[in-house]
Amino acid sequence: MSSKIKRIGILFGQEDTFPWAFIDRVNEIGKGKIVAEPVLIDKVQQNVDYGYHVIIDRISQDIPFYRSYLKNAALQGTCVINNPFWWSADEKFFNNCLAEKIGIAVPKTVLLPSQEMPEDTSDQSFRNLKYPLDWEYIENHIGFPAYMKPYAGGGWKSVYRVDSLEDTWETLKETGRLVMMLQEEIQFEDYYRVYCLGQKYVHIMPYEPRNPHHLRYQASHQTEGKQLTKLLKRITADTIKLCTHLGYDFNTVEFAVRDGVPIAIDFCNPAPDADINSVGEENFNWIVEHAATLAVEKAKAYRKTKSNLTWGEFVRKSTQS
Ligand SMILES: Nc1ncnc2c1ncn2[C@@H]1O[C@H](COP(=O)(O)OP(=O)(O)O)[C@@H](O)[C@H]1O
Ligand SMILES: [Mg+2]
Which of 127, 138, 235, 268 has its CA 20 to 30 A from that of 252? Predict the structure, then answer.
């Protein structure tokens, strides 16, 4: 293969529509100079460059072997989307802390220790934790009903709505070793899911989480006219700000709109659903087109002699000075 050809790989799991459409679209745009294919691994040796200029990662959250493969690839210069180091470090509680710091509206949230002790720990391992927790404060601060969900999770797994402290304690019994967050419930008039690619391409999708799964993207919204224009402008700006600070090039941000204010609910989705059967044709076409455009841009911007990873403002600012 000519060394001038740029190679884009996609790493994926069970999904079966987005990856193939993405590959086809890159190959159309790339005209033989930039090619896309599924990543294929038959060995992983330290410090070996397997030759991808760009890799779109859709699955390493579930497969730690892949995460490690991607870190090595990044070290060799591959532009891995999303940054596997940051993704390993990130979780939803920290996301909320950072969001609040940079002026994004988020629900009031507290972190809870896991119900069961992690493997090979005992009471002694928890001497820095005061039992019981200050539940009175937590109740007053968060209020009920509230949402309880894992600090690192997705796909609505172990997401609960609880209506009292007693209910919280009862529900916690089901959560085993998961570290949970307790969060103010946002009673919303409208809800949006927003794709954000390359921290610049934004696609806002009305979403109705109360509908059955296959109808969630067929949502209407109450906000109209000038209010809607203003709201969408703020959602766009907040989405870009969040992704820029976190350092994600491929993410979705969810907002619940309460009294006209978009409140960011879930914005740690670095391998967001992009299946045509759930997001619908229009949203699918958008994500395929923009993911292909972004990957081609990153392939063109690739420089052999430098790291081609994206880091968030948070890390970049923290490492200056
Ligand atoms: N604080 C909240 N207020 C209102 N609804 C919420 C809140 N948190 C979660 N939800 C509802 O639960 C759904 C799943 O929660 P989410 O935080 O998006 O977790 P996941 O990462 O598993 O998708 C959301 O789409 C929303 O409908
Ligand atoms: Mg979600």
Answer: 138
pLDDT digits (tens, 9 = 90+) for 227-280: 999 999 999 999 999 999 999 999 999 999 999 999 999 999 999 999 999 999
Instruction: Name the residue of 92, 265, 273 to mutate for ligand 1: max ligand atoms within 8 A of Cβ.
Output: 265
Quick check: CB of 154 below 6 Å from ligand 1?
Answer: yes
Q: Which domain does 168 fall in, by range?
A: 108-184
265: Cβ below 6 Å to ligand 1? yes
CA angle 86, 276, 288 (to 5 degrees): 55
Whether 84 shows a pLDDT value over 70: the answer reads yes
Q: Verify whether ligand 1 is closer than 6 Å to residue 69 (CB atom).
A: no
Q: What is the pLDDT of residues 5-54, one digit of tens each?
A: 999 999 999 999 999 999 999 999 999 999 999 999 999 999 999 999 99
- Whether 129 and 66 map to the same domain: the answer is no
Residue 67 sits in the same domain as residue 32 = yes
18-30 helix and 281-301 helix, angle to the nearest 10 degrees:
50
Burial-class residue 1 by CB neighbours within 10 Å (0-12, 13-18, 19+). exposed
